[in-house]
Every structure is written in C-alpha cells, then in structure tokens.
Amino acid sequence: MKIKDILEKKGAHISFEVFPPKTESGKESVLQAVKELITLQPDFISVTYGAGGGTSSQTAGIAAAISKAGVTSLAHLTCVSSTREQVHQVIDRLKEEGIENILALRGDIPDSGQFPLPNHYRYASELIEDIRTRGDFCIGAACYPEGHVETPHKKDDIRHLKEKVDCGVDFLTTQMFFDNHILYNFLYRIREKGITVPVIPGIMPVTNAKQMQRICQLSGTVLPARFLAILDRFGENSAAMEQAGIAYATDQIIDLLANGIRQVHIYTMNKPEIGRKILENISQIIRV
Ligand code: FAD
Fold it and tell me: Does the beta carbon of 108 lie inside 6 Å of ligand 1?
C-alpha cells in the first residue's frame, strides 16, 4: 500500500525502521527482527540504505520480504555515491519487487570531498525527479527540524525543502530530535512556506549513550538538559539507559499525539523489543 494512502486513514500511525546487515551472513538476524516487528502490526517498516558497499544491495531484498509478509515497506535510496545508471537499476529492481514506497535521499557527501562526481546526483530533488519518471511510486524525503548541517541558515534549508517537495514528494520523515518544541516550530515554519505534505516525526529511543552523543555532534542535534542528565546518570549502565531511553521516547510520542500529530516513525534499529515496549506504553493512547 502507498504510505500517502495509509496516512490519510483515521487514527494514529506507527512505523518502525530496520537497517540491512553489513554482510550476507547477517541477513538472517535482520529478517528475524523484521518478523518480530511485524507481529506488532506497524503501519509500515522502513529499510535504510548504506551509501555504496555491501548493505545497499540488501535493502531491496529486505523491503521485499516485509511486503511479502503483508506489511507495507519503505525502501530508502541514497544517490550521491552512485552513478545515475546504478541508481536507475535499483529503482527498477524495487519496481520489480512490487515495492511502492521509496524514501529518496541524497546521502552524506563522501569523505573524499569530490562532489558531485560527473554523471552523479547533487541533491535529493534530482533523484526524486528521476524516480517519478520510472514508476508509480509513493515518494518520501528527509527533513531536518533543526536544519541540515550543510546549510547554515534554517530559512535556506526550508527553501530547499520546498523546492524538493515540489519535485514530487508525497510525505516527509524527520531527522531525530529530542525536544518536541523544535518540531512544532519547524511545522509552523514549513506550513507558512506552503509545504503541505504530511510530516512523520522520527523518534529515536536512545539505548547507547556514547554512540548517540557522537551522532548528535555530527548531525547538530540539540540535546536538552533533561536528556543530557539521563545520558550522564545512566549512560554507563546499558539496562538502565535502555529503560530511560524508552521512557523518554514514549514521553515524546505521547506529547506529539496529545498535540494533534497522528503519525510517528520509531527508529527501532533492528531491536524489536524496543518497538514492543513503546507500543505497550501507548497501547490505550493510540486508540483515542
Ligand atoms: P538534500 O535534500 O539534497 O539536502 C542536502 C543539503 O543540500 C541540505 O543542506 C539542503 O539544504 C541543501 N540543498 C538542497 N538543494 C539545494 C540547492 N538547490 N542548492 C543549495 N543547497 C541545496 N543516509 C543514508 O546514507 N542512508 C539512509 O537510509 C538514510 N536515511 C535517512 C532517513 C531520514 C529520515 C533522514 C532525516 C536522513 C537519512 N539519511 C540517510 C541521511 C541523509 O542521507 C543525509 O542527511 C544527507 O546529508 C542529506 O540527504 P537529503 O536527502 O536530506 O539531501
């Protein structure tokens, strides 16, 4: 099913995310995680895409397995490290596999700094235009409530976002954020600029403090004092950190739903128990 049609349905919509294994041998454990996530009846499950290398070829296969099990899948696709021909091949494979939803991404600029390479894409908007010509896909794209690191001024980032959406985006998924007010302010700003497509907030239940601090430094994500205190106090104890991370994510989701947001994407990171615990915490809330 197309995600834009799912989002039009009444009620709250919850989705999960998995990432492909680095090697072929890791595929079984990812498929097991997918199986367990499916029992939680999410509205869809997304599969990330490694920019080049081994994991990129796994995305289509895992997304196809999700669809075959009767759950809508969303295949991520990045373009910056591949030629246009290589990207076209991936799009055609997704079409053959019957995958209807693609999250069209540029990907991070390669460390070599050579950007863009000849016959390569420069921005996600170019990829979106290409996907549109190659099939009847529902296309999602990324957005950044705190702004994307490469664009110093938020208003420029929102202008680029509007141009991207106008290329044919059906919905947006956000980068993780830990202060809901940042999302509410972002929504008000993009709506004011005429971006009207649904926005799915991405919520990251933090279970590994060190890894998360590094990711947030790179992406420029602000860590509120309340969240920093949790990392500081429980970061060294993985069981305590997991419990606190799930509670914090639950709190964010309840606040979003209480403020009229109807869809939330949970970055479950191949850990079905995280999805299960959060869903248990909000089981009555999502029925309202
Ligand atoms: P774009 O939309 O192209 O934007 C990139 C930058 O260029 C922004 O700063 C934007 O303001 C600027 N820009 C856009 N158009 C113009 C223009 N015309 N002129 C000047 N500047 C412009 N990465 C992966 O490798 N695999 C994944 O599976 C993956 N999944 C993700 C899922 C989500 C929900 C999010 C939020 C990010 C994900 N990423 C993933 C990371 C993403 O690839 C990086 O953040 C990347 O740096 C930007 O990708 P984009 O599609 O947002 O790029």
Answer: yes
